[in-house]
UniProtKB/TrEMBL annotation:
Keywords: DNA-binding, Transcription, Transcription regulation
Keyword Transcription regulation in annotation: yes
One Pfam family hit: TetR_N
Protein name: TetR/AcrR family transcriptional regulator
InterPro entries xrefs: Homeodomain-like_sf (IPR009057), HTH-type_TetR-like_transc_reg (IPR050109), HTH_TetR (IPR001647)
Entry keyword annotation includes Transmembrane: no
Naturally occurring in which organism (per UniProt): Actinomadura sediminis
Segments forming domain HTH tetR-type: 2-63
Length: 215
């Protein structure tokens, strides 16, 4: 039974990474896995959202452990260098993802994660952002005091999360590399720049106009 479940997960990872979650039917996953029971996906995962959640659950322990360790270091540092703190937190967002680039299953996961995040209505609600035990929720809480108030209000943190996910997925699609250190360091630089970028007077004005229109 567990073997069937793992074969289905392997097949889902491959197909979702190659074609995108929306383009793959549950029937195709069953066929790709070589499973005879046509209802095997429903039995083990319920529906497509359950399948995607199970794919994420495969990789969550390693990603979570790495990010919590980096966040522990950020909190222990307690320095007076805001710029350094922003880059350290950018690293805590990026490094747990780029660490998965060396593994074929990890590269598939990174592409699926970006697919799910980069859409108006995620297949799997990003409830982790409100779960205090989740590393992304903890990351958001640590980043917030370092942002301009307007930057936080305009969802700067989610912009950084989504950008990092898309760039790492792009790297994953291009195949395994012998060295991802430069890519990782530069992506951390860009994410830090996103977090630290000032909000322009024009953007402040337009945001105020939008808020006034909403009442």
């Amino acid at each position: 039974m567990n073997d069937t479940r793992e074969r289905l997960l392997d097949a889902a990872e491959r197909l979702y990474a190659e074609r995108g979650v929306d383009a793959v039917s549950l029937r195709e996953i069953v066929q790709e896995a070589g499973v005879r029971n046509a209802t095997a996906v429903q039995y083990h995962f319920g529906d497509r959202a359950g399948m995607v959640r199970a794919v994420f659950a495969r990789h969550a322990p390693e990603v979570e452990a790495r990010r919590h360790a980096l966040l522990d270091a950020c909190e222990a540092d307690g320095g007076d260098d805001p710029e350094g703190a922003v880059r350290a937190l950018a690293a805590a967002l990026v490094r747990p993802l780029t660490a998965r680039l060396a593994d074929p299953s990890g590269r598939a996961f990174l592409q699926i994660w970006a697919d799910v995040l980069n859409r108006p209505d995620p297949i799997v609600p990003v409830a982790v952002l409100d779960d205090p035990s989740d590393s992304l929720c903890r990351w958001r809480a640590l980043v917030e005091p370092l942002l301009e108030e307007d930057a936080a209000r305009l969802h700067r943190r989610f912009t950084a999360v989504r950008y990092a996910a898309i760039e790492v997925a792009r790297r994953a699609r291009s195949g395994p590399r012998t060295d991802d250190r430069l890519f990782t360091s530069y992506l951390i630089d860009v994410v830090a720049a996103i977090l630290g970028a000032p909000v322009s007077p024009e953007t402040r004005r337009l945001a105020a106009e939008r808020d006034a229109a909403r009442g």
